[in-house]
Amino acid sequence: MTEQITVRGYVATDPESRSLPDGTVVVTFRLASTPRWFDQQAGSWRDGHTNWFSVQAFRALGLNVLASIKKGQPVVVVGKLKVRFWEGEHGRNTAVDVDAVSVGHDLGLGTACFQRTVSSSPPADQAGERLAGQPEDAAATGAADAPAAPGEVPSGSGGDHDAGAPAVPEGVDPETGELVGAAADPGRRSRRQPAAG
User: Per-residue pLDDT tens for 22-37?
Assistant: First the structure.
């Protein structure tokens, strides 16, 4: 059974990137987690036992970790715990890995400046809710609620629109202006665009 855990600690090594045989990017770093408490009798802080974790972050999360996390920084990691055992020349060895699903700076110890990364294509499960060419946050902000009319640049594209790309978003019939395919699924939130006159 795989357990999900949350670990607070300090990054012990600079993140390193590599590619798996299928091209998947994975970024790894070591994380040291030491519990700390205030000893009332001694009147000072005391450190407990340090636990070491190997953190792995895949794909977009890995690339964001590579661009954001440095050795020595305090972080919070949420992920799936994996404990591995193997036999070495000095006996049995143990490794504790965390397959990260979320990584961030520990804001209890400092500040950070967040910058959202924009995906070049929407996730597969949102294909009918966000048309190609719309900003990632369009569905949340309502900035691009309806598909663009045939031949029109989708709203929100601004100057970033590629002049060589088709002006009509995916999921819109260029002749009628109506939603088609997954975008026309009645179970999803969408509006029909009237046919161009």
Answer: 999 999 999 999 998 9
- Count of residues in the chain: 197
Would you tell me which CATH number, out of the four given (2.30.30.90, 3.40.50.11270, 2.40.50.140, 3.60.10.10), belongs to the domain 3-38+45-105?
2.40.50.140
CA-to-CA distance for 172 and 142, rounded, in angstroms?
18
Residues 133-162 pLDDT 10s: 444 444 344 443 444 444 443 443 343 434
Q: Report residue 17 CA to chain centroid gap.
A: 16
Which two three-digit tokens encode residue 139? Answer: 């569905």
Residue type, position 173, single letter: D
Confidence of residue 89 (pLDDT cuts 50, 70, 90): confident
CA distance 14 to 33: 16
